From TrEMBL:
Organism: Catenuloplanes niger
UniProt record, GO biological process: DNA-templated transcription initiation
Protein name as it appears in the record: RNA polymerase sigma-70 factor (ECF subfamily)
GO MF entries: DNA-binding transcription factor activity
Amino acid sequence: MMSSFRCEPSADVCDRLLRRVAERDRIAFRGLYRQLVRAVFRQVGEELGNTASAVAVTKAVFVEVWSRAPVHAAGHGAEAIGWVRAIAARRAAERSMIDALRSAPDDHDARAGRELTAALDGGELTVTLDDAEFAGARTRVGRWAGCGRHRPHGEPRT
């Protein structure tokens, strides 16, 4: 049986490393990354439940840490672990919303296709709603099999 050993990052070490990262010390950034990457990955992985998304979000968190460290150090000082975890939580929530929005059009497409097919008495119909269409920019209705031509929206069946 394997034991799960979690090595928690040292707050003092992370705070010192973050101050050096704020001064653009790449070696310190590597050290901060090594200290926090497992905790960040675990945090976003639990939120997202998807390894690929967790990897992408973890990378984005550390890119933001690198780019915003000087601003954070100037305004807030230390508390590196809490700051990085807050970035991770925000990034994971954003990714969760993006993933939900990406899946929403597919669910909408399937439902719209079923409803439209039922409304047309089972005639074959292709319904495609891309993101712009889903936002209301336009609607495309494919070929209605019953008449051999495109039916404009709202035109009665013949």
